[in-house]
Amino acid sequence: MPIISRFNAATTAATVDPDNVLFTARLNNIRPLVNMLRSIYFQNRTTCAINSEGVVFTVEEASSTVAQAYLRTDLFAAFNFNSTIAKEQNQAQGIELADEDGDEDTVYVVLPLDILLDCLTLFYGPSGGASGGGSTAALLSGGNPMDLRGATTAHVAFNGIGTDFELMLEERGVISVCRMATFVPESSVDLDFSGSPVIQQLIIRSEWLRDAFNELDPTSETVGISMAPQAPFFRISTTGDNGSTEMTYSKDERILDSFFCSEEQENRYKLAQILRCKHALSLSDKTKIRVNQRGFLSFQFMIPTDADVSFVNFLFAPQTLSE
Fold first, then answer.
1. Contact 128/136 with Cβ under 8 angstroms?
2. Exposed / middle / buried, residue 126 (Cβ in 10 Å: 0-12, 13-18, 19+)
3. Which residues pair with 258 in a beta bridge?
4. What does residue 3 show for φ and ψ, rounded to 5 degrees?
5. Within the chain, where are the H helices?
6. Are 24 and 18 in contact (CB under 8 A)?
7. pLDDT band at 12 (very low <50, low <70, confident <90, very high)
């Protein structure tokens, strides 16, 4: 459980000199962060990657689904990442410095996502008001939208593996500090989407995809997704106890912003895993869908925020590879 206390902000690590701390940041409103974390909340732990470009939260399931929420620095009112401290800590732990993107300063830490959400929504009850109480996990499982209407400010501080991850929340003069234990990351799932060429790609207006998801037969174990250079260009289908359901889409500019298909291919994915992304879809304006030659499926949801567009990505292995 997190340690939660209320006291003067001057005594918290969230207000220390950023030159002496690995990572500090400030959000003037927690709602974008909460919404994005909720969209990948199907496991209780998340791997957090922090570097000078922002923060990425990753959740994995059954070696066949990976979800990532990207928070770029422009989403924060203040963002300070000390790359010198990051290098020193990585070297001390014997971590390979240069990752595949050439960023040698990234720091990885595992956080309890359920507790992180509980801390962030500490001021909010089931009605969305600052009434407190109620587990975030229970609210989410119950379908409560948790519309965060307040402007809760959040300060974040983290000083590396072995230290607590600290949040300082403030709303209407009330300050709460939450400190969470952190965990050392283990080896992550690598679905290697970039290892094969992309043969299919489109950008669809999310309202059309939401309609399609609402029509999927919940008794079906799998969902078929196919693209072709000729009509029907894009098709989503399920077969279950209630019969077959199929949605097809033309290249109408009112539906698709762009379309590319160099090779016709249909793949099937576990429906229960595909439905994990419904919350991210509900927040998005547009969705980019890509399929590589091995059948791996990528959804990139473009979510508007006060600062700019943020992204939540889901990556799925086709059923024949994930069984």
1. no
2. middle
3. 203
4. -90, 120
5. 31-39, 83-92, 113-120, 136-141, 206-215, 271-274, 278-283, 319-322
6. yes
7. low
Where does the pLDDT of residue 150 fall: very low under 50, low under 70, confident under 90, or very high at 90 and above?
Answer: low
Q: Which of 189, 155, 188 is nearest to 64 (CA)?
A: 189
Residue 195 tokens read as: 């290892």
* Cβ contact 311:301 at 8 Å: yes
> 180-228: per-residue pLDDT in tens?
999 998 877 777 888 899 999 999 999 999 999 999 999 999 999 999 9
Using the 8-state DSSP alphabet, how is residue 75 labeled? G
pTM of the full structure = 0.86
Q: Is 5 left (phi over 0), alpha (psi -120 to 50) or beta?
A: beta
Instruction: Measure the CA–CA gap between 37 and 147, rounded to whole angstroms.
Output: 14
3-state SS class at 82: coil
Q: How many residues does the chain have?
A: 323
